[in-house]
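Problem statement: downstream parser choked on a complex file, so we are re-checking the raw output for the zinc ion run. The parser issue turned out to be on our end (a line-ending mismatch), but while we're here, posting the original submission so the record is complete.
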Amino acid sequence: MFLNQENLHLLPIKKDKLSFIFELFIVVLIITSVFFYHNIFLITDDAVYAEEITIPILTYHNFTIDEGSSYQINIVEFEKQMDYLAAYNYSVISLSELLKGLRDGQLPPKPIVITIDDGYKPTFTLAYPVLKKYNFPATLFLYTDFIEKNSNSLSWEKIREMTKNNIEIGSHTLSHCNLLKYQENENYETYLNRIRREIILSKEILESKMGGKVKFFAYPYGVYSPIIKDIVIQAGYEGILNANSMSNNLNADPFSLNRQIISGQNPLNSFMKILNQRPFYATQIFPYDGVIESNQLVKIGAILEGDNYDVKTLSMKLGGAEVKFDFNRENREISFTPDSLKPLIKKSYIVNITALDKISPYVRKISWLITIK
Ligand SMILES: [Zn+2]
């Protein structure tokens, strides 16, 4: 009876035990696989990172205590971004440190650069205290005609004060003109003379007022040509910044440093997109970066390198607008040819090609400038 009872009990208990063990096994299996997946993911993440140092250069313009707009970011949002960089152990470095790092082939982990353009007064009153709080260096790109021009511009005194605390000064020309545009009644020679003045005299003015060497130049509106780039190099600058919206790597050309603008309209989204982006490599881009092209039907594209990207997620944009592209899986050529009924307008375009990376959560992006004249 006892035994029977025991036996009777035993069976269901055994069954319970078995199912319990089975359930436990499943739970352990799930935990292990999650842990493993996580580990693999992290290892992949680290591995991708180790072999591929990415250096985003952030560009801000103006700051406000009110709601942001495209070129004006709310200061609380800006502080949140700086806080994020500190919390996630980014190494915020100056452009001078970047230049040295590129020469030596060595940079601190998770390097990132902050630049602020044009010289609005809130750069001093709002952004500078935040940068100081986090002890972050930054470079200001100033156009000299704007300094002390009105109540919304920086004064020489404030600029000098900032340069004593981690802030570098770069040139952004005299007048913030589009360096590709001719003025009325200008011929090639008078145009070139004016452009040279914008590039050389702005450097001299900043140097005489600040007392240090001005090493960096940023093109207004991010537009340039090979001739303009050459004038900037001849003027003695050591680094040039464009507005091609992609990150840089350790092989970056100091005279073609890519910068990305943080929009004040959706600042967090804009910021995270830049941080989660890696360069897209191409063996060839056409037409080449900075080209002045007269053919309004020119074929634009790239031969993409490797197969670390998801082909299904490829996207191509011209001046911010999505275009219908062709992709040849055999030679990995992605290209867009304008319809003869819809030739390209005569202006400068940023070409962007993006795709999701295959093994990491990053978006790969390549970006360059073409001008139709
Ligand atoms: Zn500017």
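For whoever reads this later: The chain is about 35% helix and 25% strand.
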